[in-house]
Amino acid sequence: MSHKAFAPPSFSFAHTPAGFRFSAVRAGIKPSGKPDFACAHAVEGTTAAAVFTGNRMVAAPVLVGRDHLRQSGGLVRFVAVNAGNANCATGEQGIEACLAVCEAAARQFGCPSEEIFPSSTGIIGVPLPAEKLVGALPQVATQLGDTAAHVQQFAEAILTTDTRAKIASVAINFGDTPVHLLGVAKGAGMIAPQLLPHATMLVYIFTDANVLASDLQKFLNDAIEPTFNCISIDGDTSTNDTVLLLASGASGVSVAHSTQEPASKTFARALLEVCGSLARQVVEDGEGAGHVIELAIEGASSADDAKRIARSIANSPLVKTAFAGCDPNWGRILAAAGYSGAPMDPGRASIWIGGLPVCQKGRAAEGFEKNKVHEAMLQRTVHVRMDLGMGHGSCEFLTCDLTAEYVRINAEYST
Amino acid sequence: MSHKAFAPPSFSFAHTPAGFRFSAVRAGIKPSGKPDFACAHAVEGTTAAAVFTGNRMVAAPVLVGRDHLRQSGGLVRFVAVNAGNANCATGEQGIEACLAVCEAAARQFGCPSEEIFPSSTGIIGVPLPAEKLVGALPQVATQLGDTAAHVQQFAEAILTTDTRAKIASVAINFGDTPVHLLGVAKGAGMIAPQLLPHATMLVYIFTDANVLASDLQKFLNDAIEPTFNCISIDGDTSTNDTVLLLASGASGVSVAHSTQEPASKTFARALLEVCGSLARQVVEDGEGAGHVIELAIEGASSADDAKRIARSIANSPLVKTAFAGCDPNWGRILAAAGYSGAPMDPGRASIWIGGLPVCQKGRAAEGFEKNKVHEAMLQRTVHVRMDLGMGHGSCEFLTCDLTAEYVRINAEYST
């Protein structure tokens, strides 16, 4: 019944993985005038792995970032993230603007241009004022540092409609040597990542472990599937979703991807913990969200079918509004499962809300007490378990409700 | 640029197709105490065709209605519709309740039980009080009539969250003989029909043409695809969606389904007109809708891809809230098209809102004036054209915006 993949965000900030420094400045892109240019500098030889949005409409920085990782063979020296402008649907001009920032950063920090990793988040379809970012680079350089405050500033500068910074960190010991993982995320709307190797969600994870780029990619692919690919705020898959994982090697501890090695398992578990926590923090901060809904789907024909059913329930406006109103309208959950496309037999399906039985084999559970379930739904986090009774496929999925506040946030005419 | 399939609801009530009588009474199912039991009586030999929801979770009346049509070979004498209770997720008990109503109606009107067609709409998961419907049948029988008032009462009794009755009628002449089509619909939420031969939307269409049941089914299959299957209010496909078409033959005019016959074409066109009008009326009455959005997708790789892209745009909460705020945020439209699963190349896509160019080949259109487009979006009906530049697939799709009022309607705790 517990949501293992989505550990509650209980992490306190440990300390920055060795080999990284952070900086955040005001480049003048956010209309609010808040810091909007967040950068991370990495020591030479830092390896990188990344996954990007599955949307066919992709932003310029996603195209450039993907190219750069390919050209550099998985090396990154500098991460340049601007908020306030997604640099998406900006055509050839958008690519040029992105490259201009990368080239200026390469000159500033003395590394090949393909070792610069760019990201953007914000409004779609507005040309990116590259000159503002280029002009801010000298200030970025002078302010780099590795304290908790530097990380906090980085995490805040990448936010858009988010209400709070999202940070997760884990320290693991290999013998006497500690290895650190630190993750930073942004995202509150347009969140239904379908990350490929398989948002505007941007996630940066830093570790001082020493990991080959190819192994790093395998670790990352394993970690995103049950975490970022199992959350949805509004069902809208973004054009800019990016998860970047950097390994500086500065701890001196080498980790290879292997199903046998204990060290590999330990590192994988720590990475999963960071991803799960950040994924939960994103949903917790869902635009206008009043409730976080933990879906546990069991007994589906396959794990893929479980995920398809979970996604269908999570994206149903009728389910989401029922949770907003603390209304135990379990028929809407059953209906959403019914149109997911996955095999299901309503006569075998049972549902529990907050641990209380509401539906048993396709009809109202015996002893279903509406008001008691309503009470349970007043909690900020509500657990929903559904057993399809078909097979052994299961998944955990995290979503939030749909409130009038979500509409207000997204219906505002952006003058 | 015009939405041919969705003729504006300009029909005035013509007159009732011969062979049908209508009645609506208070059976005590709607908590409001309003009429909630709507019935239609048809002359002997009336043929029938129907399509039902594609949801795997189907309501008892859908199962019974489908069985009855099969058993009777496509004959219907009596249609019994209750609102206020969907008789869905009610198990074996729900089937028995539905059959009890059918058997009582068969006794009341002297016909085989399998010629009774049942429908239900309302809350899911609550047992249907069959005795209330059975008890109301004698009153139903005494009040049957064929005036415009009777049709209006039928149309009003089937409503749930709808704000108005939905009626469309067309008269066509075959030589000197008029043939009438009359359609009645309900539906305002849980609307994203994926009707199969291939909501809670309920549609009843009556004609006095003489049509074989098998031909009637072909006419219906043709008519629903570009109409009811091309609308969405909230993306939630219902468990109870039903479209029933009855032909009494009382006009004496026989029509066969044929791609050659002018009479077939005339009848098909009239049926399409009725379906298109009712489909538009359903969207016009979408829960909380402030705007109706007419999507015209062109240049897709195939007609199926065009529909997939249209559906993705229509169901995107970010697109829907942008229209609620009259915000020409065309990037959200492009992003929703990008994750539809259909092939697309953002660099070839262009978009017009209210006839004004907003996006040209993947970037802001030259001369895009945000405030001018904003003005155009203040209209109740907004036309959106998207040219994918990929091929010749096209479709018209009708949807509405997502407002705080939609959330209010659906988040209310149903005590």
Key descriptive features of the protein:
seven-stranded mixed beta sheet, 415 residues, alpha+beta, globular, L-amino peptidase D-ALA esterase/amidase, 2 domains, 11 helices, homodimer, Ubiquitin-like (UB roll)
Summarize this, please?
The structure is a homodimer. Chain A is of the alpha+beta class. Chain A is about 35% helix and about 25% strand.
Structural commentary:
The structure is a homodimer of 415-residue chains. By secondary structure, chain A is an alpha+beta fold. Chain A folds into 2 domains: 20-284, L-amino peptidase D-ALA esterase/amidase, CATH 3.60.70.12; 292-411, Roll (Ubiquitin-like (UB roll)). Helices cover 33% and strands 25% of the residues of chain A. Chain A contains 11 helices and 16 strands. The first copy, chain A, has helices at residues 60-72, 91-109, 130-142, 148-157, 213-224, 262-284, 303-315, 317-324, 330-338, 370-376, 404-411, and strands spanning 20-25, 37-42, 47-52, 78-85, 116-123, 166-174, 177-186, 202-207, 231-232, 242-247, 292-300, 350-353, 356-360, 363-364, 381-387, 393-400. In chain A, the strands form 3 sheets. Chain A has a 7-stranded mixed beta sheet. In chain A, strands 3-10-8-7-6 form a 5-stranded mixed beta sheet, sandwiched between helices. In chain A, strand 6 and strand 7 (177-186) form a beta hairpin. The first copy, chain A, is globular and about 70 Å long. Chains A and B meet through helix 2, helix 8, helix 9, strand 14 and helix 11 of A and helix 2, helix 8, helix 9, strand 14 and helix 11 of B.
